[in-house]
Amino acid sequence: MAVNEPLPGTSDLWEPEVSDWLLLENKAREVFPRYGYSELRTPIFERTEVFVRNLGSETDVVQKEMYTFQDRGGRSLTLRPEGTAGVMRAIANRGLDQGEEARVFYFGPMFRGERPAAGRRRQFHQVGVEAVGADSPWMDAECIAMLTHFIEELGIRGGKVMLNTRGLPEDRDAVSAALKEYFLPHVGGLCEDCQRRLDSNVWRMLDCKNPACHEVALEAPKILDLLCDTSRDFFARVCQGLRDLGVDFELAPRLVRGLDYYVHTVFEITHSGLGAQDALAGGGRYRISLPGDKRTLEGIGFAAGMERLLLARESLGLKTEAGAQTDTYLISLGENAILAGLKLAGELRTKKLGGRVKADFSARSMKAQMRTANREGASVVLIQGDDEIAKGVVTCRNMKTSEQATVSLAELAAWLTKHA
RNA sequence: GUGGCUGUAGCUCAGUUGGUCAGAGCGUCUGGUUGUGGCCCAGAAGGUCGCCGGUUCGAGACCGGUCAGUCACCCCA
Predict the structure, then answer these.
(1) Of A315, A342, A374, which closes a domain?
(2) Do residue A46 and residue A146 come from a single domain?
(3) Please, which contacts does A336-340 make with residues 24 or more away whose CB atoms are closer than 8 Å?
(4) Are A279 and A268 in contact (CB under 8 A)?
(5) Which nucleotide is closest, CA of A385 to its C1'?
(6) Last-in-domain residue among A294, A315, A336
(7) Range of the domain at A306
(8) Same-domain pairing of A236 and A379
(9) Nearest-CA residue to the C1' of B2?
(10) Å separating the CA of residue A13 from the C1' of nucleotide B35
(11) A190 falls within a domain
(12) ipTM of the assembly?
């Protein structure tokens, strides 16, 4: 049995869950193009270098979560742990003219070697967007609005937009210095991680979840207050754009997010229906150097966890229930009839009649076949035995009303149209 | 990677202080007369009690390990 179970953190997806996934994918394909974004599909594995370069060799994702392997040529390849790096690589490969923008969306499986928990899998799925070559704050506002639009279209209420800014790279030293100065006197009472972070990554001390650290971080200087005028002005425009678009948001002064390439806007959407991993989506503005391109490209993007979107829907009672598997069920009595059933089913499909047509080839009793038809939720049952075949008719039963009629093959189409 | 909880038929679970304890409900299959579902009744199939080892006269029950699930931490989506 164990050999048949999917690997930890992966799962087989059956109906009716597949329907929920299709809904998600279809919504992405419906909503994002309305904002001028087009779908991009990149490979599921890349040269390891693509991710190391883009995410940074020091990040947790790169250091301990990637599925990396050697191919037959000895190259180091990695299953993508996130979507942005591959998208950037694809954009670099195609080239982006000065002033040109690339607005794309994507979705698909990502892979990280983590311990599975609620809303966290080893093969998980993200739907994300990237708008590269766009450096306007209004772009940020529109991007966040698009995300909330998408989430609302999925029927997910109760998501909260948490918004902050990290300012420009030039601001970083001043902010770090101020934070260090603030935290230094308190460091004795903080968790081990934060004691280390004081030197390695003081920004992250702001969003530590350890109660003692959080207490201290509450009084920390606000990043926004430490930024230059340019940064503050940029952020003010993002906020204004969101207000003009009618998007509710909360300022989250301690939201910093993990990756170093973020500049200016950072945001998350949180939802209470998820358990400990309460982030539905996260993103921000970034500056990235594309390989083989001297320019630094700026962009804005986000990624949403599809499993988490589905969990949020589930917490709101929106999970798809199991439904009928079959619309028209063909019962055949006797060997001759089975062959007739095979042919009739084929004709129905060719003529696009009867919806989902399933023929029973089991040669079981009438009763047994009827039971199966009923269990599968068939709305119509067509019965053929030697009698019907001899007369060139089909016994048609409407399973909802229990009406039954003997219908000639010529009239079958009309009957099905009426009852199916 | 760390910790808590869990692991018995397809599903949900009972199984007292180790000794007919391998069970129930649901589901499935078959039947309740000659070609008819959903209700009802009857019968049947189906599990080496996650796996390995140990303690014991004897373990599903106790111990150790391992695998898996789940929740939390870390980190993130």
Answers:
(1) A315
(2) yes
(3) A336/A386, A336/A389, A337/A384, A337/A385, A337/A386, A337/A388, A337/A389, A338/A363, A340/A384, A340/A389
(4) yes
(5) B35
(6) A315
(7) 2-168+227-315
(8) no
(9) A115
(10) 39
(11) no
(12) 0.83
Pairing of strands A328-332, A45-47: unpaired
- Let me know whether A56 and A120 are in one domain: yes
Q: State whether A373 and A346 are in the same domain.
A: yes
The pLDDT tens digits of the residues spanning A109-150 come to 999 988 888 788 899 999 999 999 988 999 999 999 999 999
What is the per-residue pLDDT across A73-104, written as a single tens digit (0 to 9) for each?
999 999 999 999 999 999 989 888 888 999 99
> In this structure, which long-range contacts are made by residues A405-414, counting pairs with CB atoms below 8 Å and at least 24 apart in sequence?
A412/A353, A412/A382, A413/A351, A413/A353
Cβ atoms of residues A306 and A106 within 8 Å: no
As a rounded value in angstroms, the CA-to-C1' distance for A160 and B51 is: 45
Question: Which positions in strand B are less than 7 Å from the protein's CB atoms?
Answer: 1-3, 27-32, 35-38, 50, 67-77
CATH (domain of A341): 3.40.50.800
Residue A2 predicted with pLDDT over 70:
no
Instruction: Please compute the mean of the pLDDT values over residues A207-222 and round it to a whole number.
Output: 83
Number of folded domains in chain A? 2
Same-domain status, A19 and A109? yes
Distance of C1' in B10 from CA in A5, Å: 15
Q: How far is the CA of A4 from the C1' of B9 (A)?
A: 18
Q: Is residue A203 part of a domain?
A: no
What CATH number does residue A31 fall under? Answer: 3.30.930.10
- Closest Cα to residue A19, out of A239, A319, A326? A319
